[in-house]
Specification:
Shape: globular
Structural class: alpha/beta
Distance between the termini: 45 Å
Bound molecules: ligand C2E, magnesium ion
Number of strands: 11
Helix content: 40-55%
Largest sheet: 8 strands, mixed, barrel
Number of helices: 10
Strand order of the largest sheet: 3-4-6-7-8-9-10-11
Radius of gyration: 20 Å
Strand content: 15-25%
Oligomer: single chain
């Protein structure tokens, strides 16, 4: 496919570019029907309290198992959806599924907040907040039941529409989180100014929290500041017991990662959370239900 031409340089041939744009186009035209037929679906990953291992919330993660192309990377799907002007319907679909899983769990006496990722571009859409609030009302989601995750770069845009959408959603009882904090620019002042409910520490910080003293200081610093601001801190991508222990000793209250549980489709998630027996191979899941 791509030919490496010297160091740090990838050159694409004309057929490569054609193949790429064909794939992109194919994805774009298929998104709508893929949602309707259930090819596009949602997995949910538990977020656990590090104090006692209890699951306190879930993150919804879109999944597209394409019949010919296999599992599509969510980022690729989101870009295709943006370009096909299908990002609003796609996101509303994910929010619908998130509300559904909340109701199902609620009926079983489990009240969990569900988080949904929101592409920055959506906030520039005038009708975004109305559309989300409509779904939330239809499902009678209580205040704080839904949280929207935004990456920091989304917050670089301070246009009136973006701020109005956020304010309107907040008034409607919807919480916000900064996602992937520590990956890019990571402006602590900006973090304070946003007054979001939650901050999620990027996996790149967690990857180094057992090996780099500097990373330990950064994680401790962000953790303290977030706590002072009344924000929850969630460590993302926790894969090992060593990382778990390090985060616990740094006073980080919540975590998410393969060490606790992978993203699961509702068919696996519900028995996992509600305590029905799991298939033997799933018994390695460590989180306390
Ligand atoms: P994210 O929001 O930061 O989500 C966390 C990602 O880390 C997920 O990848 C999750 O499966 C993965 N992950 C969780 N624990 C571990 C771990 O211990 N180790 C490793 N290596 N990975 C872990 P996923 O599902 O592939 O999603 C990638 C990104 O795509 C998400 O990153 C989010 O930015 C975006 N995304 C996913 N679903 C949606 C969606 O419905 N809408 C939008 N706009 N973006 C989405
Ligand atoms: Mg996220
Ligand atoms: Mg993240
Ligand atoms: Mg990410």
């Amino acid at each position: 496919v791509a030919k490496a031409a010297g160091r740090n340089c990838i050159r694409f041939t004309t057929p490569d570019i054609m193949a790429m744009s064909h794939r992109k186009q194919a994805l774009q035209v298929e998104i709508r029907s893929a949602i309707e037929t259930g090819q596009i679906d949602v997995a949910f990953q538990p977020i656990v309290s590090l104090a006692d291992g209890r699951v306190t919330s879930l993150e919804a993660l879109v999944r597209w198992e394409h019949p010919d192309l296999g599992l599509i990377d969510p980022h690729e799907l989101v870009v295709a959806a943006e370009q096909a002007s299908e990002i609003l319907p796609l996101t509303l679909f994910v929010i619908e599924r998130a509300c559904n899983i909340r109701s199902t769990l609620g009926a079983c006496g489990r009240d969990l907040q569900v988080a949904v990722n929101v592409s920055p571009r959506l906030l520039t859409l005038e009708r975004f907040s109305d559309a989300v609030i409509d779904v939330v009302h239809r499902h009678a989601v209580q205040r704080g039941g839904l949280l929207l995750e935004l990456t920091e770069d989304a917050m670089m845009d301070e246009s009136e529409t973006v701020l109005r959408n956020i304010e309107h959603l907040r008034d409607g009882g919807i919480d916000f989180a900064v996602d992937d904090f520590g990956r890019g620019y990571s402006n602590l002042g900006r973090l304070a100014g946003l007054e979001f409910r939650r901050v999620k520490l990027d996996k790149s910080l967690i990857d180094n929290v057992t090996s780099s003293a500097r990373t330990v200081d950064i994680v401790r610093g962000i953790g303290r500041m977030a706590a002072d601001l009344g924000m929850d801190v969630v460590a993302e991508g926790v894969e090992t017991a060593e990382q778990f222990a390090a985060l616990q000793s740094l006073g980080i209250p919540f975590a998410q990662g393969y060490h606790f549980a992978r993203p699961m489709k509702p068919l696996l998630l519900l028995p996992f959370l509600l305590g029905k027996p799991l298939p033997v191979e799933k018994r390695t899941l460590r989180a306390v239900r």
